[in-house]
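for the writeup, i need someone to sanity check this before i put it in the appendix. the sequnce is what the collaborator sent (i think, or maybe the updated version? ugh). structure was predicted straight from it, no edits. if anything looks off just tell me and ill rerun, i have time this weekend
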Amino acid sequence: MKKVISLMLITLVFPCALFSQERKPDRKLEKALAAMVGEFKGTAGVYVLHVPSGRFAAVNADTIFPTASIVKVPLLVGLFDKIDKGEVKWNQPLVYHDSIKYGGSGLMQFFKDSSETEVSVLAALMMAYSDNTTSLWNQALAGGGAQVNILLEKYGLKDTRVNSRTPGREEDRKVFGWGQTTPREMSTLLLKIRNGEVVSKGASEKMYRLMTKGYYDNQAVSEVPPYVQVAAKTGSVNESRSELALVNAPHGDYVFYVGTKGIKDQRWEEENEAVQLIRKVSAYLWAYYEPKSGWKPSWDVFKK
C-alpha cells in the first residue's frame, strides 16, 4: 500500500517523471511501418514514440523533410517566447493592412484593410486554419526566422529550421521551402510542449491547447476517435504532404510524424498517395496501441 501511495504522489507532483523512461526500439512496429514506407512512390519517413513505455519506431526518422505549414509550430514557440518575456502581449491590439496579405490557406487575407485584430487572433488563426498571412506576421513578431532558429537550437534541434525570410538560409529555402525538419525532431518538439518544457509551463499548455483545435482533420486525426484529444499540424505543398500529431490515448500518449518529399502523386485530392499514407500510419498506430477500442472511422460519408 505504501508503494502505491508513493507512486501516486510521484505522479501528482512530478507528472513528467512518467515520460522520462529509457527509450527502446519497437522492432515489430518498425517493421510494419517500414513496409508501408517501402511501398510509397517518393521519399517518406516516420517516427513514433509511445510515451509511457518509451518504445519507439523509426523509419528514415533523421531524414530532413520540408515542413510546409508544420513550420508554424516553431513559429508559435517563437511568438510565445516573446509573450513570456513581455515583449509582446497576448491581447496586444494590431491593425491588418492589405500590404501584408499572403495567399494560400487561411482567413486573414480576406479581412478588410485596416481591420482591428490582436495577437491572440493571429496565433489562433495560424494553428487552427494554418493561416499564411498571420503566420508571416507571427514570424516577424517572434523576431524573425533567425531568432526562432536560435530557440530551436536551444531545445536541442539541429536540423529543424525556419528558412523563408531568414538571412543566410536562402539555399536551404530553395531545397526545402519555408522550413525543414526531421520526423524525430519535430515529434520531440511537440512532446516537449506537451510536457511543459518549452518557454514555460504556462506557455506550453496554451500552445498545446491551440494545437488541439485544428480545422484540417481529414488526415491523421480522422483515424482517431473524435472523443480522444489530438494535438496536430499538417503541412502540404505540391511535392510534400506531412503531419505531426500527439494523441492523448486512453492507454498512454503517443506522438508521431509522417514526412514525405519528392512525391509522384501531386493531386490535391483525398486519394493522394501521401495523404493515404498518413491516414494508414495513423490508423495502424491507433489499432496498435488501443487494440480493444473497437472504433472504426466513418468519415468517408462526407466524400460522397
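Residues 1-20 have pLDDT under 50 and may be disordered. The first strand starts at residue 24 and ends at 25.
thx in advance!!
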